[in-house]
């Protein structure tokens, strides 16, 4: 029986015939989506930045403080916690492209830090010095530490469960909930006709992240389908609680991100959006929703549903693409 999990060096060296079509489709779309930060004229947003309030500039700086190091943390999770344990060539191709995209996102946020008059030292230090931000990072590091300090034995139930835990921590929680919460704040400025070019940069990042989320969820569901013995009641309850615990961390973080709110947005609204997102991710994994809240940011529908995740490849992508067909 074909299995998506495996550690053999000489396995997964032949691409055709493709076993996991979804992975190949995601790779093709990711290549078509290739972009570079300096294609955006970010300097045109400097006048907007100058007239923003202190609270608005704090929110933008706070987002850069979090996004910049965590894009690189995702790459560590992929390199140490996913790539070595997957043996399908089409998955390796996609993961290689995803790792490049995470590096590109890091450089995009560096571009923001270089363009706007943001205190880089303060921004870099916040992910260590701000307790709510550091708590989120420690949550993620706890799972990847299992991958970096001890090789998993994925022939065992326990090893396969650890593999899935890491996927949930990074693909579902970090990329699928926490990043999207930040995207909502970043794109809220454009809703008020501020930082329009910055908004375009975030659009391109969101488009990449929608594929990362799609890949991660498909990988989790494939592992569970091929290894049904790992989906015990206890493990399912643990995964659900792991996701819900991450919501609590995000709520604390968002209160520091928006301590007094900005025009049209405050911590309460943002946390409702987090709960809405969490219900969508729970459902995508086969769980019942927890919060049953309405989307408080309808204008984010195209982003938070990852461009209609289920029907992504049926939709016409009107955004920038390389090699797009006329």
TrEMBL record:
UniProt keyword terms in alphabetical order: Deoxyribonucleotide synthesis, Iron, Membrane, Metal-binding, Oxidoreductase, Transmembrane, Transmembrane helix
Reactions performed catalytically: a 2'-deoxyribonucleoside 5'-diphosphate + [thioredoxin]-disulfide + H2O = a ribonucleoside 5'-diphosphate + [thioredoxin]-dithiol
CC cofactor: Fe cation
Positions bound to Fe cation 1: 71, 102, 105
MF (Gene Ontology): metal ion binding; ribonucleoside-diphosphate reductase activity, thioredoxin disulfide as acceptor
InterPro entries given in the database record: Ferritin-like_SF (IPR009078), RNR-like (IPR012348), RNR_small (IPR033909), RNR_small_fam (IPR000358)
EC number: 1.17.4.1
Annotated positions binding Fe cation 2: 102, 175, 209, 212
GO biological process: deoxyribonucleotide biosynthetic process
Enzyme's top EC category: oxidoreductase
Matches recorded under SUPFAM superfamilies: Ferritin-like
Cofactor binding, per record: Binds 2 iron ions per subunit.
Transmembrane segments: 167-189
The keyword Oxidoreductase belongs to this UniProt entry's keyword annotation: yes
A Pfam short name: Ribonuc_red_sm
Similarity field: Belongs to the ribonucleoside diphosphate reductase small chain family.
Function of the molecule: Provides the precursors necessary for DNA synthesis. Catalyzes the biosynthesis of deoxyribonucleotides from the corresponding ribonucleotides.
Subunit structure: Tetramer of two alpha and two beta subunits.
Xref: PANTHER family: RIBONUCLEOSIDE-DIPHOSPHATE REDUCTASE SMALL CHAIN, RIBONUCLEOSIDE-DIPHOSPHATE REDUCTASE SUBUNIT M2
Listed name of the protein: Ribonucleoside-diphosphate reductase subunit beta
Organism for this UniProt entry: Tessaracoccus defluvii
């Amino acid at each position: 029986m074909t299995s998506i999990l495996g550690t053999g060096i000489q396995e997964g060296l032949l691409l055709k015939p493709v076993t996991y079509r979804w992975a190949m489709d995601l790779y093709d779309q990711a290549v078509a989506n290739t972009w570079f930060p300096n294609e955006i004229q970010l300097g045109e947003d400097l006048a907007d930045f100058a007239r923003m309030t202190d609270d608005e500039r704090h929110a933008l700086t706070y987002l850069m403080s979090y996004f910049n190091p965590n894009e690189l943390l995702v790459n560590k999770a992929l390199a140490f916690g996913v790539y070595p344990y997957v043996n399908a060539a089409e998955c390796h191709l996609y993961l290689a492209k995803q790792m490049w995209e995470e590096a590109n996102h890091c450089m995009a946020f560096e571009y923001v830090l270089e363009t706007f008059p943001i205190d880089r030292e303060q921004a870099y230090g916040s992910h260590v010095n701000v307790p709510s931000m550091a708590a989120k990072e420690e949550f993620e590091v706890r799972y990847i530490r299992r991958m970096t300090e001890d090789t998993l034995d994925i022939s065992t139930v326990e090893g396969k469960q650890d593999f899935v835990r890491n996927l949930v921590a990074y693909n579902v929680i970090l990329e699928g909930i926490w990043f999207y919460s930040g995207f909502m704040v970043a794109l809220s400025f454009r809703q008020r006709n501020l930082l329009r070019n910055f908004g375009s940069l975030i659009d391109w990042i969101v488009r990449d992240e929608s594929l990362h989320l799609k890949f991660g969820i498909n990988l989790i569901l494939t592992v569970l389908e091929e290894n049904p013995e790992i989906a015990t009641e206890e493990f399912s309850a643990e995964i659900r609680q792991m996701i819900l615990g991450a919501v609590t961390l995000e709520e604390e973080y968002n209160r520091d991100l928006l301590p007094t709110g900005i025009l049209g947005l405050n911590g309460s609204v943002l946390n409702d959006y987090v709960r809405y997102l969490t219900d969508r991710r729970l459902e995508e994994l086969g769980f019942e929703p927890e919060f049953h809240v309405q989307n408080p940011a309808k204008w984010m529908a195209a982003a938070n549903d990852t461009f209609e995740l289920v029907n992504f490849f049926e939709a016409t992508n009107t955004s920038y693409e390389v090699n797009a067909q006329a």
